């Protein structure tokens, strides 16, 4: 059984207070790398998800999610939500509106790998609709 208090593969980290305004529910963040490629271990409590957001870049950019534990969701605007499990990899192109987070009944952890790009930055948008999220299995 996984010890979510300590972390799945990498230590869980502290409560993600700096980004709390962009999440529904509680998440935790442990920055693993800030040199060259930014990598964060993000852990979501059951039901926690981030707001819709866009990884902006003029060239390059985007994000890769490496799912390390639990069950979660990823959705791009205009597409159905995709269930995520341990071992799944998600390639998120730059300038694509999306969200990701835990399933209602499961913790979820992933490594968020920021792809370097020119003029890269995050644009945080509205929360995921509670009714739409509630319909996910």
| Overall body shape | globular
- Give the number of DSSP strands: 14
Query: Which segments are poorly predicted (pLDDT under 50) over 5 or more consecutive residues?
Result: none
Instruction: Output the number of helix runs.
Output: 1
Mean of all residue-level pLDDT scores: 96
Radius of gyration: 14 Å
Main β sheet profile: 8 strands, antiparallel
Strand content: over 45%
- Class by SSE composition: mainly beta
| Alpha-carbon distance between the two ends | 22 Å
Order of helices and strands: EEEEEEEEEEEEEEH
- Helical content stands at under 10%
Enzyme class: lyase
Organism: Intestinimonas butyriciproducens
Pfam family, one: Cupin_2
GO molecular function: 4-carboxymuconolactone decarboxylase activity
Looking at this protein, list some descriptive labels:
137 residues, mainly beta, eight-stranded antiparallel sheet, two-stranded antiparallel sheet, 4% helix, lyase, 4-carboxymuconolactone decarboxylase activity, RmlC_Cupin_sf, 4-carboxymuconolactone decarboxylase
